[in-house]
Fold each of these.
Amino acid sequence: MRERSAPRRRSVRWRFTRLYAGLFLASGAAMLLVVGLFAGGSTVAVPGPDTPVTGNVPTAAAQRIASLEHQLAQARSRQNEQLLLGSGVGLVVMGLLSLLLGRYAAGRVLRPLRAMTTATRRITADNLHERLAVPGPHDELRDLGDTIDELLARLESSFAAQRRFVADASHELRTPLATMRVAVDVTLAKPGPLPEQTRVLAGRVRTELDQVDQLLDGLLALARAEHDLPAPEAVALDALAADALARRALPVARVLDAAAASPVLGHRALLRRLVGNLVDNAVVHNEQDGWVGVTVRTAGREVELVVENGGTRIDPGQVAELTRPFRRGGPERTGSGGASGSGLGLAIVAAVTRAHGGRLELRAREEGGLRVLVALPRAGAGTGAHTGTEGPTA
């Protein structure tokens, strides 16, 4: 199906230019009409040289006067025609000139708007402290710039309050969680036999505490990915992928293809979390005796990390929702180990990808499972082999 073409962009500057030129041409045409009316009204009918003359004027003198008046009338008529023709040519020339002058004037008027547009596009969630600071007199454009600055100030305050709340709440909740975990451990470590019901309940509480701790850790990672980024460095995604696969006792078949991949410029801790979350997500949301495929390759100016897995078929309409916090894509996406995760894994992946200026693509595989592609700008100019993972290997 052919994609619908984007609507053609209309320039306000050209609209102002056409407006200025149209007004000038309309006023010039009105001026020519007035000149034509006056010129036509000033022409009087005079007798020709053959017109009979009556009265006491001699015949020869009368004929001479009539001839001179006729010549004068013809001269006035030619003068009027030349005047109208010259005015028309002048109107055409001034019409063309008005287009240039109108474009220049519109550019001068719209210059503050272009500056505000450029500055607004440059401001993101990471530099909300910047302001437009529109110079000039206090006119409508200055009021618009000041209004945008006030909006940015409110957004900065809201974003800062949200990040502080997430970070502070996560830190503050760790203390009571640690206390409860120690109490459970002490209870289980007491000498003497414990009732089986108490032991099962304590184990269940300990499991829930671990999941809450993972949730808080995910919230901290999500807040860190959107604020207070450390200094970037050259990071090899293939090494992070190999380490993630080696550190995890995966109950599924694994495939790693990372031949001569270029490094990316980023933050090692966040990228390690990104790769680890993708591998964990591929393992948890899998099937019995499933597989996980990881590919790292250089594609032009980007380094692509592709993580695929087998599993049940996913509704393509739910794929876009998976990067939202606490979205797991439905009850059918249960893990092979019984853990459903905190619902922050792919949300953290999306935040880290945005923080590195990359792109994230999720696609439901027709055979079942999910294919996740993360493309990040590469740090060097090296080239990599373009390889892929088609499926599990025997």
Amino acid sequence: MTTPLAISLGDPAGIGPEVILGAWARLRAERRAPPAFVVGGPGLLQQSAEALGIDCPIVPIASPEEATFASAVGLPVLALLEGQWNPGHPSQDGARLALASLQWGTKCALAGAASGLVTAPVAKGALAAIGWHYPGQTEYLADACARPYRDAVMMLAGPSLRTVPLTVHIALAEVPALLSVELIVHKARIVAAGLRRDFGIADPRLAIAALNPHAGEGGQFGDEEARIIAPAIAALQAEGIAAFGPVPGDALFTPRARAGYDAALAMYHDQALIPIKALEVDEGVNVTLGLPIIRTSPDHGTAFDIAGKGVADPGAMAAAIVMAAEMAKARAAASA
């Protein structure tokens, strides 16, 4: 990699600043740190590093082009934005800084000045108070990339498992009515294309979860498997996509089952997120597929309650940085 990654600050009152610092210090010590820069907050990050005793020199830079060389000295930080470090105390000023960092990082990725974007956690409530109208960063990024929300597919990825929730932030009671053959086929196509382009998997294997216990038990516990899920799998197979199922949810995540697929497509939020958080709690990465830019994020929130206490684990942020770099390499190789 020669084009650096952009890393957004997230809410400065959360654990974003300290996990960015901790992740960079860890990766640099292990000689695994890719070229990257943080979008804004050099003074804020310096204050955080000194207060928490994190050995991570801050190198203010004026443009992304300086990041690759500055990385040899410390953590490059674009000096165009600044704010206050006040851990555990979210504010509107902090939300504005988080939003500006996300916006500038997105612009850098879209313009090719950054090879990908790694986003630290934001507080949706604090952003809503300053006029933010998106459900989350994923929807914002889809809009910024001029893509419909449905094309921005969330995949949770770790060393031993990748999962995709086909429906996300909705009540469980609403899931059956939202499932359709078209929804499953559309999102499975995006997942398969993303695994090929960004992960270098030539023939991705997709396990499609059942909705009901025992995959409906022949219709005794629901008919969605026969009426919706199985026809979607057949349509995917007809296109040459290696999809199979419906696999009962209680059988999908055993070690033997996980060895048989590259990603599992789940019918609802918790069906996908419980196993990834149970198995990859410190290394889980949120990846957005279906966008023209690469985006990863640690699979955790702002954690205001522990911010500034020096106990936040930077493992997921380190994994998000490394995965974004690997995706950028895979994408470059695929387009060569």
Amino acid sequence: MKEEYARIIEAIGEDLDRPGLKDTPARAAKAMQFLTRGYSETVEQVVNDALFPSDSSEMIIVKDIELYSMCEHHMLPFIGRAHVAYIPTGKVLGLSKIARIVDMFARRLQIQEQLTLQIAETVRNVTEAEGVGVIIEAKHMCMMMRGVEKQNSVMKTSAMLGAFRDNAATRTEFLSLIS
């Protein structure tokens, strides 16, 4: 990857011998590996058996989970927050594991629509929840720094599964609790 970054830097017309760029290919490669570390993680590793028996059948919400991802179309960042809710059926997931699931999928080349669905389906599969709701709000650098250059635009996506899709009252409760 380091050599590829060196080629890109030269292709834009820069001099790799310039002091400020001397170690940039190595730093850029290391940064890209960090930004896309979600490819080296699995759901099993992230959850790490942190699923616990519970009599709770009320909605559980983790809101304002910050996320950083990379647009798969332009490889530019999008930055935002996720709100994740589920209704347990006999087991609950360790609190930090929700954020770790968000990070695992966000740290891949993504489109926000797919990211939202991947998080929802994973939480449903892991917890066997009655329903799962996920909303993501994010600002996309590919829209802010290039193209239409709209600085204040925010994209919102949602995935509603099970009770969150089938029951308007459940969906409304979720939406009111995150606003």
Amino acid sequence: METWAPTDVPALEGSGPPLRLYDTATARVRPTAPGETATMYVCGITPYDATHLGHAATYLAFDLVNRYWRDLGHDVHYVQNVTDIDEPLLERAERDQDDWVVLGLRETALFREDMEALRVLPPRQFVGAVEAIPEIAELVEKLVASGAAYRLDDPEYPDVYQDIEATGHFGYESNYDLDTMLQFSRERGGDPDRPGKRHPLDPLLWRLARPGEPSWESGLGAGRPGWHVECAAIGLNRLGPQVDLNGGGSDLIFPHHECGALHAESLTGEHPFARHYVHTGMIGLDGEKMSKSKGNLVFVSKLRNAGVDPNIIRVALLDGHYRTDRSWDDDVHATGEKRVARWREAVDLDTGPDGAELVTKLRTHIADDLDTPGALAAVDAWVDEALTRRGTDPAAPGQVRAALDALLGVRL
């Protein structure tokens, strides 16, 4: 699958402290410690609708990780999937009397446009589930052969499931209790109440073909993959048995990332699959949860079509910490708009306060679990000083402009 166009990133002088991020599995902020190449797998969209602000906030957070690791001198191998075959996509296509393939292609294309407009650095590999089905089926066949997976004793649809006891580590990533896992499984695409499973939480690996549904031939029989195993196969085959970071929204903590880790670790024996599991908070609208059912989703493309500068969207979303649930409203938008205007005014001056000092502050804040509110406040302080003509360094405006571009992705 084609990714979006890359954007140039200015090279800055010097370097900052190691990046520290909150790890969901250990429930603490820990330093990341990648090698020469930092590996990152971030779960992508199910393309049945346009990119909303919750999507944007998530991918902006991991864009900061990407940018900061690059600033530290790492080569970043970033992989992202697209779940272009799954129930939500098929249901939306049926509801709208649309072709599921056309729907997926259309919304994926719009997602790429939105990411490019927001200046999110593209993944090295952008992989659709459909194009990866042969490798997913191969992984499932290996799990069955090893005894880590089993066929359901159902004469009509003997689907393949993963035994959650296969690794002895199930539950370590989310740290949820059984009742919470069962609740989230029911709410987020699982089938804990299906008869015949060894355990209610055993995740689906391969769904045998049903009438009227798309399917693909494999050694498992005609069918299609479960959701979680898609990411395990795509990640393992491109990044290896262990990644530095596995990321996504907080709604992916369970079952998606828990089960993805189960699949990967069952196959490779490597634990943990990710050295850091990193999750972003949810974005609401006017204090209410943003959701399809409420019809209150705010789409990036609609804001862009209304003439909103993508830099404003980016700065407004970065004004909240990535791990917090937060809201989008007119005040958030207006604050972002005013901020970008003042920043532009300051970096267009002939002189300014010490730019190197601000670069150091930006690096320090980002390295501290992506403290973007602190980073934005530091820029505001520099701007306030610059606009009152209290700076005499002619190199400072250009230095700050480059740092905002390189570290925050804001091009003024």
